[in-house]
Amino acid sequence: MTIAKPYYPPFVHVEPTKENIPFVELGVVDLSKYVEGPEGLEVRKQLAAELEEAVTTQGFFFLEGHGYPKSKLDYLQAVSQAILDLPLEEKERYSAGSAQSDADAIDDGKKLGAERGSGFKQRGYWAMQNGVRDAIEHIKYRDLLHPTLRNKHSYPPLVQQHLPEIAEYFSFLHLNVVRKLASLFDIILELPEGTVWNLFEVHEDQPELSGGGFGRAMLYHGMSASDEAKTNNTWLRGHSDASALTFITSQPMASLQFRDYHDGEWKYVGYRPNALVLNIGDRFEFLTGGWAKSTIHRVVSPPKDQRGHRRLGVIYFCDIKPSVYIDPDTLQSPKLARLGYKKPEEWERITGEQWDDQKAKSFGKAYINLPPGDEPAPFYIYGRLAERWHQLGK
User: Fold this and answer.
1) Sign of torsion, CA 201 205 209 211?
2) Mean pLDDT by 10 residues, the chain (394 residues)
3) If residue 119 lies in a helix (H) or strand (E), which one and from where to where?
4) What is the DSSP string of 244-304?
5) Core-most of 39, 80, 143, 374, by most CB within 10 Å?
6) In terms of residue numbers, what domain contains 164?
């Protein structure tokens, strides 16, 4: 007998804007064309060529044909909305960090904070320009690929009730979608089959030996007019992701932008129903010595005909194994060597875990984000610029 799922009001996305927004033409990789086995090699080579163009042109691209049913993704968004609309008192009981980022000490290794800890991040946690605090809340899930460990985190009853469906989505992305993308990266980088997947593969209930990452449902409430004036209409300041790959549900609100590292201009990301937006993160950039670039992106206030609506995204920040050294010596790619991509002398040899630990603790801190303008105060972690501002020679 099939047990009916609890009903929750669906999250109603805003209608696509009718304003003349200059959306950039992003690459599209259609994984429905992927064919396993020796007979599918030629098809995979074609997909690899499309992936390479998307990664090296902008670092942002659409992923279609991922295989996760739209009905299930719609339900996950409805559940996410219900979770994020829980009473404030309940969300505070399951907070992932302090009320503000600066209170989560950067030198306290035991304090994950709302950037990395499981549970809720409240509005106002991150500092922005000119004394403004953010108007975003999210819930983060850890250890979703590990059945025993994921149930040990402290979540409200509503999350516990739906943890199997939540884990199913993020597990599908990692074990199906990432595995296929890893195979395509093997072809691009001229590596033996399975090389890149070996960095992402999962050993059940052994996170220290596994690729992984964390899931997040993120709700933007919008800012007051006075705060938007102080932030130049920015809802989330430009940053690059500390992860290797990031998967974002495509949304019709015209708010997501990335900064083109060829010309330094901010470009609008459009909308493709049931597609995912994928961007390269820091760790994959470091693995490839800068061949793949971690893309700076931000969220800005939408056009007038989309005002007054909330923006909900479901995001997977996908990581390689924490102990992997994040530089080209790990991959030993003939293609990267031939093209001259190698570890710059100023980069210290570090693992992904070291990078994540330091970068996550710095995000949203007031002393970094107080300067006006597009960019936060630049600073370095292990010889590497913390936010990957490539454009205009940076």
Assistant:
1) positive
2) 81 97 95 96 98 90 98 98 97 86 60 81 88 94 96 96 97 98 99 98 96 96 94 91 96 95 90 96 95 92 96 98 97 98 94 88 60 69 76 41
3) strand 119-121
4) SEEEEE--SSTTEEEE-TTT--EEE----TT-EEEEE-HHHHHHTTTSS-PPPEEEEPPPG
5) 80
6) 27-393
Handedness of CA 216, 221, 227, 229 (dihedral sign): positive
Q: Is 87 inside any structural domain?
A: yes
Candidates 34, 35, 39, 40; CA nearest to 63 is 34
- pLDDT recorded at residue 369: 58
319 part of a folded domain: yes
Domain assignment present for residue 21? The answer is: no
Contacts 24+ apart (CB under 8 A), 110-118: 112/360, 113/360, 113/361, 114/140, 115/360, 115/361, 115/363, 115/364, 116/140, 116/142, 116/214, 116/356, 116/360, 117/142, 118/142, 118/143, 118/153, 118/154, 118/155, 118/214
Let me know if residue 9 belongs to a domain. Answer: no
Q: How many domains, the chain?
A: 1
Residue 256 structure tokens: 């997501």
Q: pTM score, two decimals?
A: 0.94
What's the CATH number where 329 sits?
2.60.120.330
